Amino acid sequence: MPILAPYHLHKEFPDLPSRALDFFHPDNGKHGKNEQGQRIWLPRTIMEFAEDVARPGQTPDSKQFPRFHQLNQICQRLADVNLLTVFNRGTWDSHDASYFWTNDLLLMSDKEKDDIRRLLNYIVYGFVAIFEDFKNSILPIVHYDSDENRAVGTAFVIRSDFNLLFTAAHCVTGAKALSLRGVSSADFRAAEIFVSKNNALDIAMILFDHPVLPDAKRLELGHGKILDDVIAIGYPNVPTFAEVLAVEKATIASELTGTKGIIVSNPTEIFSKAPMYLISARVRGGFSGGPIINDRGLVVGMVLRQPISEISPTDSIYAQYDNLGYGIAIPTEHILAFTKGVYHRDQSVYEKIEIREYREIS
């Protein structure tokens, strides 16, 4: 489990996990001799780590700096995942807790070490770090129909040389006008919109011809498996709280909401004939098109509004998933296959759509 250190630790000292690995590297420590006279590396202590990372003009026990027990929590978490070895857990205030690299870490290739470092904040701080890293990469997409009815969905940016946004197809099809926060009308006019010809998959891609949203950290695609911890991030449609009591395990930042759950199954949905994820998070309305992100910060799926079928949307079968408290997501395998089809201009996979009007929003 991620550490329970205060939220400010990730915000104010985001690189502490990486600094901890550097500090406790054997080459950066002290050396001594064992009883046989052989040269050995000596573990270093939390007190020494605190002195090393203290800011100029501050002492390690300053209120403006992580407490000793918080630094110890970080190192214990790294020990839990076999990156550090615990030599001494220390006293109640953790001053003399000491750590050292594990043999597994010492034997890793440089690439493996780089991959580990990329994930350190997620490993140590958990989903709060993932949410903070990617919240600016997840945008509200506003759909206006011919009667000016307004519906909000979610789109997200992925890492790509071609500047891709993904969303659910129903968030863009049939629109008289669209809006995407942070995207100018000039950018949007130069974009292409593709939707899957398989309506059951409900995938849409917005492809820009130049970089957009330069300050957003790009999400990467990965693969999920049963019982992965995940978060769904999106823009729920909540017009009012009157007479509605909702309880969700969630992380909320303004209108962008993170709902925590796990992948509970990978069934074949009976109407689409394609594998989908059921996730134990209730993701309604505006979550459509939003990413499902695992505890390594990788997108493993995309939220669907509801199961796709050939019967009326008012039929009670649509309510059954929601009554059970499940959401439905498209695994990234479908997203990757669709993306490949678009790149190869395979028109059996996609169709292009045109939006008559684009409206800028702040």
**Order of strands in the sheet with the most strands?**
20-10-11-8-7-6-9-21
Q: Tell me the number of structural domains.
A: 3
Shape: elongated
Number of strands: 21
How would you describe what is shown here?
This protein is an alpha+beta fold. The protein has three domains: about 5-125, Arc Repressor Mutant, subunit A (Orthogonal Bundle), CATH 1.10.10; about 135-215 and about 340-360, Thrombin, subunit H, CATH 2.40.10; about 220-330, Trypsin-like serine proteases (Thrombin, subunit H, Beta Barrel), CATH 2.40.10. Helices cover about 25% and strands about 30% of the residues. It contains ten helices and 21 strands. The strands form four sheets. Strands 20-10-11-8-7-6-9-21 form an eight-stranded mixed β-sheet. β1 (about 30-35) and β2 (about 40) form a beta hairpin. It is elongated. The two termini are about 35 Å apart.
Descriptors for this entry?
362 residues; 3 domains; Arc Repressor Mutant, subunit A; 10 helices; Thrombin, subunit H; 24% helix; 21 strands; alpha+beta; six-stranded antiparallel beta barrel; eight-stranded mixed β-sheet
